[in-house]
Amino acid sequence: MSDAAHAHPVDPDRVAHARARLPSRDEAAQLTSVLSLMADPTRARVLFALDLVEELCVGDLALALESNEDAVGYALRLLRTAGLVVNRKQGRVVYYRLADGFPEPLREHCLRQLVVLSEAPAPDDG
Amino acid sequence: MSDAAHAHPVDPDRVAHARARLPSRDEAAQLTSVLSLMADPTRARVLFALDLVEELCVGDLALALESNEDAVGYALRLLRTAGLVVNRKQGRVVYYRLADGFPEPLREHCLRQLVVLSEAPAPDDG
DNA sequence: CGCATACCCGTAGATCCGTACGGGTATGGG
DNA sequence: CCCATACCCGTACGGATCTACGGGTATGCG
């Protein structure tokens, strides 16, 4: 029977405590959707690049990432739709930069911090 | 032609600058894999719950999340494989808690901070 | 020893995501 | 006016990811 958990909570107190403070599944989905946007190599590197040089057009972005325009274009589409980046059109060229309201703690503590974390491997399964 | 970007960089200087400092695609994949682990409603709530009450068995976790054992079991498997949570077996019951080396900044600045961010909607596409 | 519980694992199915491709629009130059 | 450039969009395909299901192992109880 995998469909249901046990009927007798082992720690009813802790279950109630967690249950009361836990974000709802809908709230969790909302905040994880933001996280999902950075949880992709291409998008993460796009954000890194824009953080480094402030502004870059699509073609240069593809060059900097050693990627192609398709991948970068798709990444920018999602980032733009989410409002994490904004664009400025000058002639035929479209320049992208991080949005003014780009989450500072997210950039500082997620992206940059994760570089450090990825260098510290996790212990094996128990 | 979507396969290649333009041959003439608009800002060769910025391209070179970004290219030199950018994490490689492999490094990016490694750090985004960590991010991907939290970028799921079930796993994020599991981590939230364990952060709140320190220790919880699988069944109680499913109760607290109002989920089923399958979803929680799968979430714990990935979290455990990645070394983000550890388990302790007492009799038939398996208790889970956050790993000792669980990234503090990740918990503090990603999970908790994202709750605030999710409440500030992003502007529309430009 | 036989049964129920608590959890784990492997597999199949559905669903989502990222990439590749073709075509379209707007700008700029000859 | 015609063509090349820079970028965007819609579609189709391959791959990854999550869920659901059946079965397996270990513990505790009578």
UniProtKB/TrEMBL annotation, chains A, B:
UniProt-listed InterPro entries: ArsR-like_HTH, HTH_ArsR_DNA-bd_dom, Metal_resp_trans_reg, WH-like_DNA-bd_sf, WH_DNA-bd_sf
Domain of life: Bacteria
Keyword Cytoplasm: no
A Pfam family recorded for this sequence: HTH_5
Alphabetical UniProt keywords: DNA-binding, Transcription, Transcription regulation
Domain named HTH arsR-type: residues: 23-118
SMART domains given in the database record: HTH_ARSR (SM00418)
Record bears the keyword Cell division: no
Record-given protein name: Metalloregulator ArsR/SmtB family transcription factor
Organism (species): Blastococcus jejuensis
Phylogenetic lineage: Bacteria, Bacillati, Actinomycetota, Actinomycetes, Geodermatophilales
